[in-house]
Amino acid sequence: MALEVKKHVRYFEMCLASFPSQAESEDSNKLALVYFCLQGLQILRHLDFSESDRTGYSQYIYSYLITMGNRQGFRPSRTFNIDGNERKNDEKSYDMPSISATFFALVSLLALESDYTKRIDRQKIIQFVNSCQIRDGPDKGAFRPTLDVNGVAFGDADMRTTYMAVGIGRLCNLIDDLDVPSIIGYVTSRVSLSGGLSSSPYCEPHAGFTFCGLATLKLLDYDFGSANWTSNTLHWLVSRQVNYSNEIYSTLPSYPSWNQEDDGAFNGRDNKFADTCYSWWCTASMHLMNSDYLGLTNIREATKFLLGRTQNRLLGGFGKSHESRPDPLHSFLALASLALWSGADSTTTPDYNLDSVDDALVISGQSVAFLSKLWLPQ
Ligand code: GRG
């Protein structure tokens, strides 16, 4: 089955140039969309921008940077920066940085090969990240998404924000400035009885949270080999792949989450429909624990789902399901999955000449190489 490389390239380039008016509500997620498109192009090995385009896109991303005294981060939207001026030290404002915007800005700048170490103050970035961390109580170790007008950690803490906070630590090469034991304590306390990870105690585990938790641990150099809980997690992850040839389904004609089109794909939790993004959240989770674990999934069927059902052969890009329009998140995660799987089993995975992908930071091999150059002694 063919991967429509040229169409995917055009799709990402179109998204970077303009979004339809229906995407207005995504203003505060704009940097995430930029990240999906840039890293998607890089995985396709087609980030073919001129020097001036790279500079233009990088300048745009730096326009999201805010400094507030000894803290710094990227804002999710420029809407609250009404007058466009730099913040004065003691000024109270709703124009605040967020953990997610900071993570997405840095991984986008890596794709553009912009040396952000010269533009950001990484100590101040880590000060901001650390001020979002919860220090006591049941969520100790987790991170809230932003600060309130008084500079106090604000918003619901969860596994996604915790993952991105630790990702920023890696991207700034300042992991040791984070409170590593409390973060590991938070993540491992969210491993449920079934093996999947949730964000809050006793809540339903989800493949998205499971990926965020395992990637956080990997970024903190956690030793999965010595942990006593990972076999349950692996079992839960392997069970996310939908297999309707399994006899049990023929005895359940009224199973409410039955959709024959899902066969071979992954779902995010028990009794839910499958979707493109779970290809990444589930298989990358297994890969984080041990790359050999990919051999426990049926990569051939999983590839058939992506290429045959959710790839849009007319417009390029991938949708969530066989009926959905393409969007940047599902397009990026489909390509990241195909890149992760290539090489897993050469008999079932065709070579699409994609770049490699880092399972924890979710960036291309080229971006990983650029990141490592940033921290070489000058
Ligand atoms: C590095 C790609 C990348 C992203 C940054 C934001 C983030 C980190 C990860 C998101 C992880 C994720 C998908 C968490 C799950 C959130 C959740 C509870 C979704 C439930 O959504 P439903 O109910 O979907 O619409 P299902 O499929 O469960 O029915």
From TrEMBL:
Domain of life: Eukaryota
All copies of domain Prenyltransferase alpha-alpha toroid, residue ranges: 3-344
Keyword Metal-binding: yes
GO cellular component, one term: CAAX-protein geranylgeranyltransferase complex
Gene3D superfamilies documented for this protein: 1.50.10.20
Keyword vocabulary terms for this entry: Metal-binding, Prenyltransferase, Repeat, Transferase, Zinc
Cofactors (names): Zn(2+)
InterPro entries per record: PGGT1B-like, Prenyltrans, Terpenoid_cyclase/PrenylTrfase
Recorded GO MF terms: CAAX-protein geranylgeranyltransferase activity; metal ion binding
Family under the similarity heading: Belongs to the protein prenyltransferase subunit beta family.
Record's protein name: Prenyltransferase alpha-alpha toroid domain-containing protein
Organism: Meyerozyma guilliermondii (strain ATCC 6260 / CBS 566 / DSM 6381 / JCM 1539 / NBRC 10279 / NRRL Y-324) (Yeast)
